[in-house]
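Collaboration report, partner site 2.

Our partner group contributed sequences for two proteins of shared interest, and the home lab folded both. The records are reproduced in the order in which they were received, starting with the first partner submission.
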Amino acid sequence: MTEAQQNTNETAQATANGDAQTDELTALQARVAQLEKEAADYKDQWLRSAADFKNFKRRTDLERADLIRGASAGLLLKLLPAVDDLERALASVTPDVAATPWYGGFKLIPQKLQTVLESEGVTPIIALGQDFDPNFHEAVIYEAAEGQEGKVIGELQRGYKLRDRVLRPTMVKVGQG
């Protein structure tokens, strides 16, 4: 073989090796691009899962708080008739009973019960003289009252709110013109 043929063969072989290296480099770059895309997809999925978990945790905390509030609302609602009875008992005390020493102690019971209710967020609904509002009042009697049309003129049973929710509406007498 002549020297020129040998140089041609070496050049052809070098070109083939260069083409093979170029093909291999292109394949590696494609593989790197594919892996980077997969990594970005996995990162995106992880971020979404982390956000979903955070939202789930917040939602369950709110549901737990609502459940606790609902449970305490049920108990507080059961206590309100006892509060009503104590208030009626205090309102009907005669002067000779009011002079006895045990009555002074008895008066503390409704006060303590009211303090407990207030500590739980229970507040009475102010009704007398207010415009009738079906969200807070339950009208059981309509009575003629000059100049008091649509106003609450009598409170038959006190209503209560638990924070911003009506626990029990006030039973009222509403004036008609």
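Second partner submission, folded after the first:
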Amino acid sequence: MNAGYTTEDLRAAVEAAIRAPSLHNSQPWRFRLHDGGIEISADRERLRSVAARDWGVRLSCGAALFNLRLALAVAGKPATVGIRPYPHDPRVLARLVPDVARPAAGAERSLHDAVARRHSNRTPFWGDPVPAEVRSALAKAARAESGWLEFVIGSAAVGAVAEIAHAANRVLERDPRYTAELARWTRFDPAPDGVPVSVGGPAGEPQDLLPQRAFGVRTRAPGRDFEAEPLVAVLGCAGDSDADQLGAGQALQRVLLTATGAGVAVSMLSQPIEVPAAREQLRLALGRYGMPQMVLRLGYGQPGFPTPRRPAEDVIDVDPR
């Protein structure tokens, strides 16, 4: 039997896990070492008034789970993952216990190297196309985590997805709870969470093909419109259960890290997923089996900066035993 993980393993893995993306950079996760296993739990109180709160928490924790797996693998201590290990405690989303020790694979090291550099880029991209081989690698990354990545090809198809996204954004912006939650996570001063206005992207304008979240009131420089023909992709998975959404978070993070390694910038549009009617429209428009879990805009642009994170010790719980 393999020995359990140690507090040092926990700390090193959590340092990577907290670099995962989360809705509004809310970081809705907790970690602990319990009976030699590392557990990740949902912290639903971090998102109070989001209609799709549970989806957002599970997707975010799935992305953090993927980073946990990577960090442990790179340390030569890969994990076996159990999803929802305690039926009596739905807050615990996953438990990782040691598998057979082995050296990390080259792909694992490359993905791990991208963890600290990955960040959303909400600014306009340049016109350079993303090569076919890179798009293929991104689709392969999604499949490796039992997901799929559908690139939306053609101006008509992109326009249809854009209209669904704008309609969803209008629905959300009419909800005072949504606008209050967005304001709560917008940071004008330094903070360990939320989205600083410096990286929130410029405010949306009527000519924009895709909607922007209103993180602050930054205006864009003249001639810095968003790209007229963006590369748009939709990430999804076979179902929409709690386990499916955790899996989608892992697929999302593998895609994002693969993109980072290839020098591709990404921003995420979750509005069409947060509104059930828009999500169903998107599913029908794609004609894919399964459920959409995130819309991505990909391209090349001016490098930005990662959003801040809470210290690892702030999200680690001590096992009461």
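Feedback sent to the partner group on the second submission included the following. The first helix runs from residue 7 to 17. The chain has two domains: 7-116, 132-299.
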